[in-house]
Design a protein that fits this description.
Strands 2-3-1-12 form a 4-stranded mixed sheet, covered by helices on one side. The protein has helices at about 5-15, 30-45, 70, 80-90, 110-115, 145-160, 175-185, 215-230, 245-250, 290-295, 315-325, 355-365, 375-380, 385-390, 400-405; strands spanning about 20-25, 45-50, 55-60, 65, 90-95, 120-125, 125-130, 140, 165, 190, 195-200, 210, 230-235, 255-260, 265, 275-280, 305, 325-330, 335-340, 345-350, 370-375. The protein folds into 2 domains: about 5-205, Enolpyruvate transferase domain (UDP-n-acetylglucosamine1-carboxyvinyl-transferase, Chain, Alpha-beta prism); about 215-390, Enolpyruvate transferase domain (UDP-n-acetylglucosamine1-carboxyvinyl-transferase, Chain). The protein is α/β, with parallel strands linked by helices. It contains 15 helices and 21 strands. Helix content is about 35%, strand content about 20%. It starts with 5 loop residues before the first helix and ends in an 8-residue tail after the last helix. The structure holds uridine-diphosphate-N-acetylglucosamine. Uridine-diphosphate-N-acetylglucosamine binds near residues 106, 144, 146 and 288.
């Protein structure tokens, strides 16, 4: 069963700050990033109960307006509280996320767009501080369809005066979910899922109940885990429509896939063909599946050219794959993957979330044992991964204790 989507759950949690009262989210994945966002919400004054996959967030009338460095540096999505805090409190102080292992990831688009709506920003000892005496709806043209910037403008605009139009908005499914959730809270949003989103500001919003949809990136990762071992899997809860380009690339590699009543089934029983692909904002090939797809193509028949267009440096996994016998060369924004007949198990190190799971996928298909170090990167975004892989038939001696420990040992689910 595919878990709830990390990138939806985090945005819905941040957006809950827009309304005083009790929001309830279902199908929330129990992963480290969700626990970090729980800490962020608590830090700004909300109380959070998380039992099983159901999370209740009680938001008070007055909030603190700071997301501190200790939390933002653990997870960039903490900056998603910027829009809601500015809209509700007229003030937000968010630590700058700084660089990370996949590139510099600045906040300039967020700042520029919210600035046009009447917020003024300054930098203060590593923090981006925004103040406003009231946001006003504007036409915002994003230079790049950034998901985070689209989300912060969208949430801020729900309580702004007048109409906001976001042009060149991100179109990812999590934006559509966020907009649906906001509408349930009483916001007036249309066009989410297209490049133009319109928001008519309202006076106040009310809490809502919402079910987090399944995670397309987890679905894609598990599909590649099965294909790397030349096996098959039915991904219960997966939605093919969200993975169009990815699935067409799997088909081009010689894998079969079909939608079933319960999800999506994929399989392959021979060595895959090489496939070229380029990452792009949705509906293009997701950058969050680039590393895993490279891991799969390492043993393809032929040479694949992979172009990374979304992040400036997202190939840290390539050197580690080389330790397993892969033949991949990085040239600027491109990786040239020369397929080898098989990989060999080896000790390797995860440097980021998706690159880390790529190493797990490569290890599953490799001959012999592998040890993936710094697995905490993977624990940020994959619920019960060792268990799910075992159910696929893999021999995983993951330190399951470490896995659950990483999910906040001090956390009291009640
Ligand atoms: C989100 C996802 C992440 C995914 C990424 C791209 C979440 C929690 N994370 O991250 O998994 O890999 O989308 O699909 O949903 N940029 C700027 N200035 C800005 C904002 C972004 O230059 O102000 C650049 C970034 O450096 C990056 C590109 O735009 O190169 C995409 O960033 P963005 O879409 O904002 O990604 P995130 O929302 O951070």
């Amino acid at each position: 069963m595919v878990s709830g989507a990390k990138n939806s759950a985090l945005k819905l949690m941040a957006a809950s700050l827009l309304a005083e009262g009790r929001t309830v989210l279902a199908n929330v994945p129990r992963i480290a990033d969700v626990f970090t966002m729980t800490d962020v919400l608590r830090h700004v004054g909300a109380s959070v109960d998380f039992l099983g996959d159901v999370m209740a967030i009680e938001v008070p009338g007055q909030l603190n307006s700071e997301a501190p460095y200790e939390l933002v540096h653990r997870m960039r999505a903490s900056v998603n509280v910027l829009g809601p805090l500015l809209a509700r409190q007229g003030h937000a102080r968010v630590a700058m996320p700084g660089g990370c292992n996949i590139g510099s990831r600045p906040l300039d688009l967020h700042e520029e767009a919210l600035g046009r709506m009447g917020a003024s920003f300054h930098f203060d000892h590593g923090y981006l501080e925004g103040v406003t005496s009231g946001l006003t709806g504007r036409r915002i043209v994003l230079e790049f369809p950034s998901r985070g910037a689209t989300e912060n403008v969208l949430t801020a605009a729900t309580l702004a005066r007048g109409r906001t139009v976001i042009d060149n908005a991100a179109r990812e499914p999590d934006i559509v979910d966020l907009a649906r959730f906001l509408c349930q809270m009483g916001a007036q949003v249309s066009g989410a899922g297209t490049s133009t989103i319109e928001i008519e500001g309202v006076e106040a919003m009310t809490p809502a109940t919402y079910r987090v949809p399944s995670d397309p990136i987890e679905a894609g990762s598990l599909a590649l885990a099965a294909l790397a071992t030349r096996g098959e899997v039915e991904l219960l809860g997966a939605r093919a429509a969200e993975l169009d380009v990815f699935l067409s690339k799997l088909a081009a590699s010689g894998a079969r896939w079909r939608s079933t009543v319960a999800g999506v089934e994929v399989g392959i029983d021979h060595r895959p063909n090489a496939v070229d692909f380029a990452t792009l904002p949705y509906p293009g090939f997701p950058t969050d599946l680039q590393a895993q797809m490279i891991a799969y193509l390492c043993t393809a028949d032929g040479t694949s050219i992979v172009t990374e267009n979304v992040f400036e440096s997202r190939f840290a996994h390539v050197a580690e794959l080389g330790r397993m016998g892969a033949d991949v060369r990085v040239e600027g924004h491109q990786a040239v993957v020369r397929g080898v007949p098989r990989l060999e198990g080896a000790p390797v190190t995860a440097h980021d979330l998706r690159g880390g799971v790529a190493l797990v996928i490569a290890a599953l298909g490799a001959e012999g044992d592998s040890v993936v170090h710094d697995i905490h990167h993977v624990e940020r975004g994959y619920e019960d991964l060792p268990d799910k892989l075992r159910r696929l038939g893999a021999e995983v001696e993951a330190e399951v204790e470490a896995w659950s420990d990483a999910v906040d040992p001090s956390f009291d689910p009640l």
